[in-house]
Amino acid sequence: MNLKKLVLSRLGHTEYRPLQEEAIDALCSGRDVLLAAPTGGGKSLVYQSAGLIRSGIAVIVSPLLSLMSQQVDELNRKGINAKFLNSTMNPGEQDDLVWAIRHNHIDLLYLSPEKLVQPSVIGFLHSFDISLFAVDEAHCISQWGNFFRPEYSQLGQLKDAFPNVPIIALTGTVDKQTISSIQESLKLENSLILKNSFDRSNINLQIAQKRKAKQQILYFLHHEAPGQTGIIYCRSRKKTEEISSWLRQLGLPSLSYHAAMQEQDKQNNHQTFIEQHGTIMVATTAYGMGIDIPHVRFVIHLDLPNSPEAYFQEIGRAGRDGQPAKTLLLYGLQDMLQAQQLAVSQPLSAEKEVHHLVNLFQILEGRGCRRQQLLSHFDESIPACNYCDRCLSTKSEHNMTTASQKMLSLIYHTKGLEPFALLIQILLGKKTKAVSAVRAELLPLYGKGKELTEVQWKSVIRHLIAFKYLSIGESNIFTVQINEKSRSVLQGKTQIIIPSEHYYPILKEEQLAL
Ligand code: ADP
């Protein structure tokens, strides 16, 4: 058996995946590698294998302490000499570790980026033979990514300090800007860039309009994932607790998880979630990076994720065992507006946040297969999946050009100062206080949009926002403007085609058979 095979079997597997082998070969020949593969794509096996094949100590950095300690425990169980250098170690433990390093008793050394860049640590490592550096979750290095960690940006000094040691950067993102900023920051000019398919075909995608969201969730839990383990993502901490206690009242085993919880409670809930199959974890995105639980069967988004990458990462926590898994994202116009408002108000990163969000909106509102939409964001082109909600629906679409022209003209006439809810009332010819307050009965478009329902008007607005036929004001006060793209619609040069609305069914609490 050759060394590569031997190492693979020590790590508990029988076959490398094609990209893993390519990355390992490159590292073993001393070349830097940038490996972009989705969560669950088997990235850890690459640096673990190469680290065991090459002589010397492989140094691995990751932003998440829990992830590192989990990996080290697992490796130790397999009889592999891996250690985790962290700040919670007492001086005695640190001495033991140094002793073990000096006596060649360590193959893989995990530490945090903060620790690694300390001059004393760099100096210490200099006296040993280092086989490679692995920078996990390398998108943390990029200001452009979703998880920027300033201390990561100092990792560029590794190349200067150890010019002959190969570096592998690993990321679950393929966003071009992020990739080039990783390359630049880590000084990986001639690295081999390997990109795995981001298609996780065992994960089913459903995206639907929100209507009585709690009852929609009940339908999902009852009909699509009865008794199964899954995660429900919400934006606010309060909401995770509310939803989780509501589920418990209904007799469904549920826990919550968010950043403001006590460390011990987080740990307990995480552990229970792993051990007790059938538990529903209601969490903010704090329950995220590095969660590797094979039997998560579903992920529900009760609120919008921040970007396509975040959406992808979050749904990617389902089906990590390769078995079928289901996802459901519920949203509506209101969610889009709120998310946009929040993004705009980010003091340092408004432009970036809005950019990510608009990319997400385009996936939600785009025509055709959901999986195609999502993967095209990652520059991958695949055939229609035939099992997302779009592929399974009647695939009907409507030409909404005239409706869009009416909406855009009304926005123009009202100077973009009125909320969408009022604009819809005007088009439907409603006689409400809000309508009379702005004397909208006198507007030429008053009552001229009765051919559509309120729900359809909302879908027109969502589409116009997603594809930038409307510009939302860049301040906290609601304003909306027409722009160059809207003019082209108004002049009839651009057609607006919108897929039919899809509502996910509901199940009332009293219908739930306990
Ligand atoms: P990532 O770091 O890319 O998120 P992991 O390294 O955690 O992914 O791997 C995800 C899962 O795939 C793990 O359960 C791992 O054991 C499994 N895996 C990785 N490589 C292989 C392989 N070559 N053969 C079988 N299973 C693998």
Automatic annotation (TrEMBL):
Q: Which PROSITE patterns match?
A: HELICASE_ATP_BIND_1 (PS51192), HELICASE_CTER (PS51194)
Gene Ontology terms for molecular function? 3'-5' DNA helicase activity; ATP binding; DNA binding; four-way junction helicase activity; hydrolase activity; metal ion binding
GO cellular component, alphabetical, reads:
bacterial nucleoid; cytoplasm; replisome
Instruction: Name the EC number(s).
Output: 5.6.2.4
- InterPro entries according to UniProt: DEAD/DEAH_box_helicase_dom, DNA_helicase_ATP-dep_RecQ, Helicase_ATP-bd, Helicase_C-like, P-loop_NTPase, RecQ_Zn-bd, RQC_domain, WH-like_DNA-bd_sf
UniProt cross-references to Pfam families, sorted A to Z: DEAD, Helicase_C, RecQ_Zn_bind, RQC
Q: Which UniProt keywords apply?
A: ATP-binding, DNA-binding, Helicase, Hydrolase, Isomerase, Metal-binding, Nucleotide-binding
**The Helicase C-terminal domain, residue ranges:** 213-365
Q: Which residues form the Helicase ATP-binding domain?
A: 24-192
- Gene3D superfamilies named in the record: P-loop containing nucleotide triphosphate hydrolases, Winged helix-like DNA-binding domain superfamily/Winged helix DNA-binding domain
Q: Which GO terms describe its biological process?
A: DNA recombination; DNA repair; DNA replication
State the similarity comment: Belongs to the helicase family. RecQ subfamily.
UniProt cross-references to PANTHER family, sorted A to Z: ATP-DEPENDENT DNA HELICASE Q1 (PTHR13710:SF105), DNA HELICASE RECQ FAMILY MEMBER (PTHR13710)
Specify the protein name: ATP-dependent DNA helicase RecQ
**Species of origin:** Marinomonas profundimaris
